[in-house]
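Justification of computing resources. Each target in the renewal requires a structure prediction run like the one illustrated here; the chain below, 353 residues long, is used simply to show the kind of job we budget for.
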Amino acid sequence: MKRYALIIILLLTNVILPAQNTDTLLSYPNRVTEKYVNRVNPDETCRMLKSGIMIIGTGSNVRAAESYGGRNAGEKEYAQSANKYKRVFGDSVNVYCMVIPSAAAFYTPDKLSGSTRHQGKTIDRIFSYLSDSVKAVDIYSILGKHAAEPIYSRTDHHWSPLGAYYAAMKFAAVAGVPFKDLSWYTKHTVKNYVGTMYMFTKQKEVKDAPEDFIYYTPDSIQYTTTYTNYVTRKGVAVAEGKTAKGIFFQPVKDGSTGAYCVFMGGDAKITKVETSTKNGRRLIIFKESYGNAIPGYLFFSFEEIHVIDCRYFKKNIKKYVKDNHITDILFANNIARAVLAGTNRSYSKFLTQ
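Resulting structure tokens:
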């Protein structure tokens, strides 16, 4: 399935680095992230696999998390992508930059702290490169405040829908749009979930520690979802397929390893959601699979939401923004994807293809 392509890319970026001082974040003029100290599991039993994946804890609470290596050059490149879009679209479109940390940012025990880069510092540096007209969306800080909650899956490389909820809340505040709390949503539970981390590690202890996958669907709002699917070959979009209406939240059975695909069913498509919210705000979310969990919390916030995966889009984005009367663009990539050179080449290519 296409969601597995991200795992391979993420792991190719995992570099074991020497220990770094994590007592303070670097001081940049535009710094907005807050210091995070792991008080959830600092002394937890842990070990590092050769693949760069940490196995943390034991028994039913075991967690598999990818170490973060990243690229220094990619930090500036990601910010420059957002800056370029703001220059192109000017005052008619608001541009936002969100960097989604991985689980290692919050759950790395002290014993392995020197084996993964400090993600807060990386996010600081990205934000320091943003122009004053691009709005930083600091979710590192809000996720840190909720780290004791299940904001990341233990058996999958993605965050959980709850983590995405807190991120969407912060984005809505920065964007100045309405936002509804979870009392406006119906809670769904997929039991006996073991995600992608068992497939990659083959560690029996991960397989033997299933979790509940909990997601939320909005109530008291009307919305329609339209998909434009891409024909792919070896993970690359080669043609645009048909456009058809569908459902945003896909049915998932207990024990499904693909529970995260509840959101739109995957990545190789453009998703357009038209809502009964009438405020003239129309949003594009640029993302990879991490971003799939965000838009379902924004139906009360935007009149339209367009979800575009950075790996598959084949249209000209300038024409797309004009034709769809877009008012807001959110860059929302996970940290490893954000600093990849290919990600930012794709965003540049969208403007000319």
